[in-house]
Amino acid sequence: MRFELVATCPETGARLGRLYTAHGVVETPAFMPVGTQATVKAMAPEELEALGAQMILSNTYHLYLRPGADLVAAAGGLHRFMHWPRPILTDSGGFQVFSLSQLRRVTDEGVFFRSHLDGSGHFFTPEKAVEVQMLLGSDIAMVFDHCLPYPVAYGEARAAVARTTAWAKRCQAAHRRPDQALFGIVQGATYPDLRRQSAEEITALDFAGYGIGGLSVGEPKPLMYEMLAVTVPLLPAEKPRYLMGVGSPDCLLEAIGLGVDLFDCVLPTRIARNGTVLTRFGKLVVRNAAYARDFRPLEEGCGCYACRHFTRAYIRHLLKAGEILGVRLTTIHNLYFTLNLVAAARRAIAEGRFAAFRREFLQGYGAEKGLEA
Asked: How many CB atoms are closer than 10 A to CB 229?
């Protein structure tokens, strides 16, 4: 993997780049739709490509439990298994281990947890997380880290930083797949000194790129931006920076302005299944009765398939009737909106007008109308 820095915004930290992988080039900043179970919910791979998706994220924890990494490897790897020819990033499973498992025990060696599917016991170590990702064959693999919720006590956060660094070293030693890049992850919760410590320790290991973890876990957005402002300048300029789990429009533009290159989030697809769509003015809950006789598109001027062919009234009818097409249409719109917003940010950086672009969008979007990351 190779990262090329093409341009930077003269007023902000926004960067335009190219990420070269074994399965193609990704223009950054880029948003990765989440394909947790080796599929982006309600979407076929060709539809994702048509929307402008360059890279997707799949989940190590879920694929390890079902169908199993050995099966995916036997199928020819994750790309062939799910018919996705472009780059894939797999997370380490660490976030799911800590968020989904009701029963878990953390040690310096690894984490014992019970499956959310059947209650079976499993032990995940840094070496195991790397082994699973090597079998999956993603283009970018993430180290196994210790992610904490918000808020968390300082002592617990400090211990998690030490454990994350130790586990990163073990992941690096276990990784043996030359066509797969390994990214380190910076932790530190919402403590600036711990963020600095973690960034110093993880960057010293010289990974191919760096994830920023432990944010968008319930903290206020201004605090997340504060932690990004502390962390991002400490990451090598010549390597990609990945903010994990962030995808609301306002957070994307703020983080791009701070110098972040890659993003992923379930938000566009998750809220689509609940009948909510993203627009340049904020969220629109199309399931609401107010739209029962509204014959406008989801968003005026939007070029997505849903907005070109269907009305709010019709899509609301589909959702209320439990028809699959309703969820597909809201998902198409939300992914189109998010991917096009980030593409517009890339154009603005290239043309030296990102600061104005961000300001104009956020003024129209309105902080009170925005969604949580």
From this structure: 15
Q: Which residues, in sequence order, are bridge partners of residue 31?
A: 263
> In this structure, how many other beta carbons lie within 10 angstroms of the beta carbon of residue 31?
28
- Asked whether 213 and 143 are in contact (CB, 8 A), the reply is no
> Which band of pLDDT confidence, cut at 50, 70 and 90, is reported for residue 366?
low
Residue 101 pLDDT > 80: no
The closest of 223, 242, 221 to 232, measured between CA atoms, is 242
What CA–CA distance (Å, rounded) separates 100 from 83? 28
In angstroms, the CA 204 to CA 99 distance is 29
What is the Rg, in whole angstroms, of the alpha carbon atoms belonging to the chain? Answer: 20
**Residue from 183, 178, 162, 324 nearest 241 by CA:** 183
Alpha carbons within 13 A on the beta-carbon side of 368: 0
SS3 of residue 192 by DSSP? helix
Contact 245, 264 (CB under 8 A): yes
**149 in helix, strand or coil?**
coil
Q: What share of the chain is helix, strand, coil (3-state, %, to 5)?
A: 45, 20, 35
Residues 57-70 have pLDDT tens digits of 999 999 999 999 99
Q: Hey, what amino acid is at 106? A: V
Strand positions, DSSP E, 60-216: 88-91, 104-106, 111-114, 121-124, 140-142, 181-186, 209-212
CA distance 103 to 120: 11
pTM over 0.85: yes
* Cα–Cα distance measured from residue 135 to residue 314, given in angstroms and rounded to the nearest whole number: 44
Q: What is the DSSP letter of 175?
A: -
Q: Annotated catalytic sites, by residue?
A: 91, 264
